[in-house]
Every structure is written in structure tokens, then in C-alpha cells.
Amino acid sequence: MSTPLVVVVGPPAAGKTRVSKRLAKALGVGCVDTDALVVNQWGPIPEIFAARGEPFFREKERLAVIEALGTNGVVALGGGAVTNAQTREDLEDHRVALITISPEAVAPRLDNQKRPLLKDGLESWKALVELRADLYDSVAGRKFDASHQTVDNLAEEILRWVREDAGL
Fold first, then answer.
1. Rg (CA), the chain
2. By the 8 A CB rule, do 15 and 148 touch?
3. Are 16 and 23 in contact (CB under 8 A)?
4. Contact 99/144 with Cβ under 8 angstroms?
5. What's the rounded Cα separation, in Å, for the pair 100 and 103?
6. Helix (H) or strand (E) holding 130
7. Which residues sit opposite 106 in a β-bridge?
8. Of 42, 66, 102, 109, whose CB neighbour count within 10 A is largest?
9. How far apart, in Å, are the Cα atoms of 119 and each of 20, 21, 63, 89, 113?
10. Nearest to 100 by CA among 127, 79, 116, 117
11. Taking the domains of the chain in order of start, what are their residue ranges?
12. pLDDT one-digit tens code per residue, 103-124
């Protein structure tokens, strides 16, 4: 069975997708984004939330996580994927990079149209991160702060860790 080189987790707008794509390119492997898997099959996330609700989305997200964890490249999980207990359990067997980011650094990245759980912008984001902080910490193999560095620098920092940890 295949297993990802690294799984990237973190709060919404932390840069998980962009960093994961750069990691995959540097490692010469594929990148799977669980949000993209859901969108490809079910449509835009805000529309899923509006038409079918968050429980439906989380169910489809869980299926995307199972699929992604069966690949051998880099996996980016959606910000809420760690709220599922089975996903957290599954991540125990994986190298997990947690991307953190300060409220000040994330503020310009928040697009409330694309993020249905962040209707009140930064205040919603802070509350969400506070609720999930222990869940993120519980799955993290190592934390990387995106607050004051470029995507390229962050990807390079994670890449060094993955190569060292995986013996590449």
C-alpha cells in the first residue's frame, strides 16, 4: 500500500495547498488536495455547504482523506479534516506537517466567499483555530509557522524536515 511522504494540515488560509504543491514538485511526486477532490466531484465548497450542509461536506471530505492517504506523494488536508476522529487516528501512521499562521498574517488571505465557516472574517477564523488547536497539535509531527516567510521558504523548511525524517 502506498503512503504519502508528508501530510500537510493547518487552519484555513494557512497556505497548505500552495506549500504542498511546491513540496511535491521539489520531491518529484504528486500532490493530492482533499478539498480539490471534493470540489471535483461535488462542486464548490460554499455551494455544498449551502445546498447540503456541513455534515454532507464532512462525509465527502472523509472519503477524500481515505483516498488521499492511499497515495505516495504529498497530501494537503482541508482545514477541518482533523475534526474527524478517524482521520486523526489515521494520521498517527503518517509524517504530518502542521502549518500555523498568526491572525495578522492570515487576515489579508481571508476570502469569506470561498470559506463558508468564516463569514465574519478574522473573528470567525480566530474562533475556529481556537476550537481546533488541540486537534492540529495532536496530529502534528512538526510545526511550521507561515506568518513571516514566503511560501517558497516555508516549503524549503518542510522539505528539509521530510528529507531528513524519511532518509531521502
1. 15
2. no
3. no
4. yes
5. 10
6. helix 122-139
7. none
8. 42
9. 26, 27, 26, 30, 8
10. 79
11. 6-163
12. 999 988 876 556 666 667 788 8
CA distance 4 to 29: 10
pLDDT at 3 over 60: yes
Locate 11 and state its grid cell. 487552519
Query: Which position has the grid cell 463558508?
Result: 116
Identity of the residue numbered 146 = A
18 within 8 A of 108, measured Cβ to Cβ:
no
CATH, range 6-163: 3.40.50.300
First CA to last CA distance, the chain: 19
Three cell numbers, residue 25: 514538485
Q: DSSP letters of 54-101?
A: HHHHHHHHHHHHHHHTTSSSEEE--TTGGGSHHHHHHHTTS-EEEEE-
Q: CA-to-CA distance for 118 and 83, rounded, in angstroms?
A: 16
Residue 83 phi/psi, 5-degree rounding, is: -75, -15
